[in-house]
């Protein structure tokens, strides 16, 4: 009877070792959980960025003012009847 009990105890210990330290054990499970959490954060960031881009696309498709604003800001668009003034700030020199 003692031999059977000893064999069962050794078997349980061997299985516990595989669970805690073996391949596909708790360590790998925790690493996968951390990877999953990081990927979910990246996905949330990308989802937010995609929503902003989608809103920008809808705005550009539906509103002529948005197209004009983008042309003015990014391409320097000026209408023929407008005069463009560029103001350059003057930097004061330090007086010792």
Can you put this structure into words, describing what you see?
The chain is mainly α and 96 residues long. The chain is built from 3 helices and no strands. The protein has helices spanning 2-21, 26-62, 64-75. Helix 2 (26-62) packs across helix 3 (64-75). The longest helix has 37 residues, at 26-62. The chain is rod-shaped and about 105 Å long. The termini are far apart. The model has no long low-confidence stretch (mean pLDDT 84).
The dominant shape is: rod-shaped
Q: Strand pairing plus helix content: what structural class?
A: mainly alpha
Q: Which stretches of 5+ consecutive residues score pLDDT under 50?
A: none
Tally of separate helices: 3
Total number of beta strands: 0
Proportion of beta-strand residues: under 5%
Run of helices and strands: HHH
Radius of gyration: 33 Å
Biggest pleated-sheet summary? none
